[in-house]
Amino acid sequence: MASALGAKALTRILLPTSVAAAGYGATRPATKEWVKNFVTGPGKYSRIALLFLLLLNWKSLPGAWTIRIWRAMIYHLFVRPRPRLPPSCLFHYSITTSYASLVETDYNLHKSNSTYFADLDVSRTHLVSHLLRPGLKAIAENLSTGCVLDPRTNKPVNGKMGVMLGSVFASFRKEIKPMEKFEMWSRILSWDRKWFYIATHFVQPTRPASWDWQGRRWGPTRKPILAEKGEQGWEKRIFATCVSKYVFKLGRLTVNPAVVVEQSGFLPEGRPGGWTGGESGTGTPVELNGETVFPAAPGENGEQGGEEWRWQHVEKMRLKGMEFAEHFAALDALHNDWDAGEEGALGHFWIG
């Protein structure tokens, strides 16, 4: 990963330069003549129809996925100022808006199930880049920060940082119609010693009760729809729910996700054994004096304000998420079920 200083400088130079170049090009006589011929020349209706079709399906065009991913990373990691978020924001949702393009529509006239995963990539990138930016930066600059030590030499590990996707599970509830808007609500579900779990809900546009930080530099640019609870609660607004798991790498070494979260400033002090030692990350609760102690979080059970966010609150949410994540993780054992057709196969079919 490039240094934050170099990327910021590059962005500040390239972005204004590109805008200025585009503006200058639009004023050139040759450009004006081309636009005029495009709109009024022979075959104009076909060209305009094709342009309109491309605009409706821009997110599905070649290269669009790469632009969406890199735009999210550059924006959150290098351009937008990150507010100081308290530890209580760790499990809050990151909301990303999208729509079902015509190209994504299958023969059932709804968003194809396979296209959900491309949108998931974008939503997860926004969440991780926004929430864990300080931790990712600390890992990338590990030789100076020393937050990840080689267990053999007890010296900072030297290597390239990477965030790798391990697997994705998707449960579909109802269809998304062509050109219908939807939102992806992604949040941290849990983590263990190796895997970092993220839950994502595809939902109808919905307004949260509050925003963690509503500065002028970023935030909602629309008036979100506030859903009303009915007999089904919020479930009636859900299109699909997905769980993804990431692994953080520094060279060939797997980084405990707790290190990234802690370096991002979200893990309160005081946990017995720390967040990377003892039982941390194993999915089992921490025992205090023979019983598990989890105080109510601020605002929980109808309370307003009051008690500060402590390490027990984080552990309570992590373990709650592990109740779902551990079943998802158990699917890894299915890899061992493949027998390479020892008892035969149906056939080999073309085209795939």
Automatic annotation (TrEMBL):
A Pfam family reported for this protein in Swiss-Prot or TrEMBL: 4HBT_2
SUPFAM superfamilies membership: Thioesterase/thiol ester dehydrase-isomerase
Highest rank taxon of the organism: Eukaryota
InterPro entries hit by this protein: HotDog_dom_sf (IPR029069), THEM6_lcsJ_thioesterase (IPR051490)
Membrane-crossing segments per the record: none
PANTHER family, per database record: PROTEIN THEM6, PTHR12475
Family to which this protein belongs: Belongs to the lcsJ thioesterase family.
Name used for this protein in its record: Capsule polysaccharide biosynthesis protein
